Structure formats: structure tokens, C-alpha cells
Amino acid sequence: MLYVQVHLTLPAWLHEEIDAAAIYASDEDKVALAIRMSQRNVELGTGGPFGAAVFDGEGRVVAAGVNRVVPHNCSVAHAEMMAFMTAQARTQRYRLNDDGRRYVLATSAQPCCQCYGASVWAGIDEMLIGARSEDVEELTEFDEGPLPADWVGELERRGVQVRRDVLRDEARRVLAAYSAGGGLMY
Fold first, then answer.
1. CB within 8 A of 184, min separation 6: which ones?
2. Model pTM?
3. 160, 124 contact by CB (below 8 A)
4. Residue 31: what are its φ and ψ, rounded to 5°?
5. 51-56 and 103-109 as β-strands: parallel, antiparallel, unpaired?
6. What is the DSSP string of 61-117?
7. Could you give the strand order of the β-sheet that contains 61-66, starting from the edge strand earlier in sequence?
8. How confident is the model at residue 184 (pLDDT cuts 50, 70, 90)?
9. Which of 27, 57, 154, 175 is most exposed by smallest CB count within 10 Å?
10. Which bin fits 145, alpha (ψ -120 to 50), beta or left (φ > 0)?
11. How far is Cα 83 from Cα 136, in angstroms, rounded to an integer?
12. pLDDT at 185
């Protein structure tokens, strides 16, 4: 029998972590939420050390995601992908900014090659990044895959502004704690 359905879920605790009415005004506020989600995901054993959230132009959370690769045996269940899919389901648009509004992706770590590719088409206008890919590869067993040499320039040419190293040290601490706790052993 062939499977005709894919079902991915986010952990129940995620809803308790996010105040849907809150305004995350600064870049640091947005990335801090992504980092907090990555940390909770590790602490609670519900996935890997990555968190991401999509915000509207006012700074309200549209959707959030955490890494769920191992629990779902699904290589695409990265935090950014989960946030994109949830935002797209919520807005009923595969390209978020087709409504003329502005959308921001905040992520605890630089998107891997898969999430980078999805970012090009998801309809975001800005990407805020905590840890760099070299931090991920230095501190964990993850391979972030190949990116264009000028990946920031490629995004910016497509209208996506990029800001890196937002709360980088805090994001690195989560990655280091994940590895110190045994990595994929959750």
C-alpha cells in the first residue's frame, strides 16, 4: 500500500510558549523567541536544536516551528519548513507576501540548503538569523549542505533582506548544550 497522506505535528508545548497577541518589536525579540523554542525543544526531548517563527509586519507571530526530523522520520521537518508550512496553512497562501504585507522569518540558526531554497519561494521579506552554519557544524553533528557562495546576495536580489548574528552567542549555547546532552539521543 502507498501512503497518500503526510502528517507532521508540532509539540503541544509550543502553543504555551508563544503569546499570539504579543508584539515582538525588535529583531532581537524575534530571534530570542526562535532561540527559546530551540532550547525548549531540546530540553523537552521533542526534536533538534532549531527554532523558527514567521512574523507579520507588525511583529505578531503568524506561525512557529521547531525541528521534528527524528520524531517524524522526515528529513524536511526542519524548524523553518515547519514554520513556513504552518504559516502557509494559516494564511491559505503558498507565497505569504502575495497579500502585499511584509513577513519576517526569525531563526535560531542559519538555514541549511533545504530551508534556504524554501525561503526563496515562501514569500518572506526579511530573514533574521542567530547562529551561523559554521557554528552548527562546529558544535553539532549536522551537515548544513551546500549554499551558493553569495547566498545572502542571492536572497537580497530576490527581495529578502538578511541580518545575521542576532543573539549569536545565545544561539550557540543551545547548540553546545544539545551536543553535550548527547545530540540525537532524545
1. 48, 70, 141
2. 0.96
3. yes
4. -70, -35
5. antiparallel
6. EEEEEE--HHHHT-TT--HHHHHHHHHHHHHT-SSGGGGS--EEEEEEE---HHHHH
7. 61-66, 51-56, 103-109, 126-131, 161-163
8. low
9. 57
10. left
11. 19
12. 45
